Amino acid sequence: MAWELHSYIVNPDDQRIYLKHVFYGHSKDDCQQVKTEHLASCEYYRAAEAEGRTDDKWEAINDEDLPAVEGDDDDDGVIDVG
Ligand SMILES: [Zn+2]
Prior knowledge:
Blueprint: E1 2-10, E2 17-25, H1 28-41, H2 43-50, E3 54-61, E4 69-71, E5 80-81
Antiparallel strand pairs: 1-2, 1-3, 4-5
The structure holds zinc ion.
């Protein structure tokens, strides 16, 4: 069992959701760890959390449904995720 933590950010101007982060992990703790690390570098998200404008939803997924890096097959210098 793996998890996705969907963290929606609400726009304070019109109260609509306009952005979502998704954190993946093999456990909820893994997801929380990724979230914590991202919060440290994402000023925008940190402000939204501090202002209570985020809404977190958990989704259980199969391990094989975690996004996997498939390597750079097409020589464009970008690692493909699928
Ligand atoms: Zn961010």
